[in-house]
Amino acid sequence: VVREHDPLGRDVELFRRHLYTSGNVGPTSKGSEGAELVDGLVIREGDFKLVKTRFSAFFSTHLHSVLQRAGINSLVVTGE
Fold first, then answer.
1. Which of 5, 12, 27, 78 has the smallest CB count inside 10 Å?
2. Tens of pLDDT, residue by residue, the chain (80 residues)
3. Torsion angle, CA of 15/21/26/27, rounded to 10 degrees?
4. CB under 8 A, 24+ apart: contacts of 60-66
5. Which residues face 3 on adjacent strands?
6. Spatial CA neighbour of 4 closest among 32, 25, 38
């Protein structure tokens, strides 16, 4: 699960919009350093990359349906 946003901030939460004003590329705009995976984390063939634009990987994403289709009923969530 990665956070990526439209460079103009059109899909950013209201409380983060100030980071995308005045023509600035926001810190998690698609293609920016802030949207990159951390060193050592690689998406391999067959892996699924889920892009989130909100505070939660479970809100307005397809995570639940992806897990169901794959027959996954347990999930471990980590992060910094």
1. 78
2. 666 667 666 667 766 766 767 666 676 777 777 777 788 888 889 887 777 766 666 777 788 888 899 899 998 877 76
3. -60
4. 61/1, 63/1
5. 52
6. 32
- Write the DSSP assignment of 4-34 as a string of letters: -B-TT-TTS-GGGGGGG-TTPPPTTBTTSGG
- Could you give the domains of the chain? 1-80 (3.40.50.850)
Segment (H or E) for 3: strand 2-3
Please check whether residue 19 is in contact with residue 12, taking contact to mean a CB–CB distance below 8 angstroms.
yes
- At residue 30, what is the residue type? K
